UniProtKB/TrEMBL annotation:
Name this polypeptide is given: Lysylphosphatidylglycerol synthase TM region
Signal peptide bounds: none
Location(s), subcellular: Cell membrane
Start and end residues of each stretch annotated as Disordered: 1-20
UniProt keyword terms in alphabetical order: Cell membrane, Membrane, Transmembrane, Transmembrane helix
InterPro entries: L-PG_synthase/AglD
Ranges annotated as spanning the membrane: 27-48, 68-88, 100-124, 144-168, 175-197, 289-322, 334-355
Lineage: Bacteria, Bacillati, Actinomycetota, Actinomycetes, Micromonosporales
GO-annotated cellular components: plasma membrane
Membrane topology: Multi-pass membrane protein
Major location category of this protein: membrane
Record carries keyword Membrane: yes
């Protein structure tokens, strides 16, 4: 029997067409996100920053940074890259540091430098962990844990920043309000997570509560459709519960440390610029920490790849609000971005190439052994 019907001739209805449609949608999404990222970068760096900052003055300040601070920044950037492997290593028992480093850096590069790279990075991460002899279930569990706790760490940082301001004596009503709201928000999130891990019944209750909160507006926005968050919560619990019972301190600590090392690059930049210009920023370390903490929250808004432009606008605006001049804030942002984003993306690209070469070699060796045994 031949497949000469109009539907078959057109290629419709088969699984190949579904794959093609999904690929086409991903391509369009990547192209749109690329265009949006370029537009935002131009708007921020060409349209907004020149209105309150001077690029030539910022570059002159960067060039005057003392050598000792440049060396310290390089060391801090190396440490920032080195500790990035710890969250995945903590979430996946048996994963050695070397493979965790390769997988973590590659995932960062795809997620933060490739438009719509989150899905691609997830697939690559599964393939890489599979090449290191970890099954899909273990890979999914580790990815879920590291993703959720990265969100938690990012949400906790503003609370840490505000508390640092309060401890240093900068008591303002809006700081107190942010601290109270932040502590309550983080407390609710931690309590929900604890309930999910404690029992399946607790996970089901959290899921049902989330369904009630989300599905009421979702029905209006999605034309009557709803989402099944209870099922997703139960699936998440099944994936992570065994690991989190014994490894939660390592997971929590390893996720917070990269946040602090990233901020340390900003703080060293600030101090280096001050020493080079012999002019104080007027921004204390608690203010610097608070500015960084609130700026990285902007990365949750999926406007640009890796928060390019949006996080930079938030960081420069907050540093200026705390007392820095526009050119000082711009210089600090440029050096911080160069010390955090660029090295990790380049390292991730190199690690991906390294993995492709080594994984390909392992496959050839395995095929050769199989042939010899056959």
């Amino acid at each position: 029997m031949t497949s000469d019907s109009p539907k078959a001739a057109a290629g419709g209805g088969g699984p190949g067409r579904g794959v093609s449609v999904r690929r086409g949608r991903r391509l369009w999404r990547a192209l749109i996100l690329s265009a949006v990222t370029i537009v935002v970068l131009v708007a921020v760096f060409v349209g907004v920053f020149p209105r309150f900052a001077n690029y030539s003055q910022a570059w002159s300040s960067i060039q005057r940074m003392p050598t000792v601070y440049l060396v310290a920044l390089v060391a801090a950037a190396v440490v920032n890259i080195a500790v990035a492997a710890w969250p995945l290593q903590a979430a996946l028992p048996g994963l050695r540091y070397g493979p965790a480093f390769v997988v973590g850096q590659t995932s960062f590069a795809f997620s933060n430098a490739v438009p719509a790279g989150g899905v691609i990075g997830l697939g690559v991460e599964y393939d890489m962990l599979g090449s290191y002899r970890f099954g899909t279930g273990a890979a999914a569990s580790a990815t879920a844990i590291s993703t959720v706790f990265n969100v938690f760490a990012t949400l906790v940082m503003p609370v840490v920043g505000v508390l640092a301001l309060l401890i240093s004596g900068e008591v303002r009503w809006h700081f107190l309000l942010i601290a109270v709201v932040g502590v309550c928000g983080v407390g609710i999130a931690v309590a929900a997570f604890a309930a999910i891990l404690h029992s399946e019944g607790g996970a089901r209750r959290v899921g049902r509560t989330a369904d009630r909160l989300v599905n009421a507006p979702a029905q209006r926005l999605l034309h009557g459709r709803t989402v099944n968050l209870t099922g997703k919560v139960l699936d998440f619990r099944a994936a992570v519960v065994e690991v989190m019972k014994t490894r939660w301190p390592a997971v929590v600590g390893s996720t917070l440390i990269p946040q602090l090392t990233s901020w340390s690059i900003l703080f060293l930049t600030q101090r280096g610029l001050e020493k080079g210009d012999h002019v104080s920023f007027g921004v204390t370390w608690p203010e610097s920490l608070a500015a960084y903490s609130f700026a990285v929250i902007v990365s949750f808004i999926p406007v640009t790849t890796g928060g390019l432009g949006t996080v930079d606008a938030g960081l420069t605006g907050l540093l200026t609000a705390f007392g820095a001049t526009g050119s000082q804030a711009l210089a600090a942002d440029l050096v911080w971005r160069a010390g955090t984003f660029v090295p990790q993306v380049l390292t991730g690209a190199l690690m991906f190439l390294w993995w492709r070469v080594t994984a390909g070699h392992k496959k050839r060796m395995a095929a050769q052994r199989a042939g010899d045994n056959g």
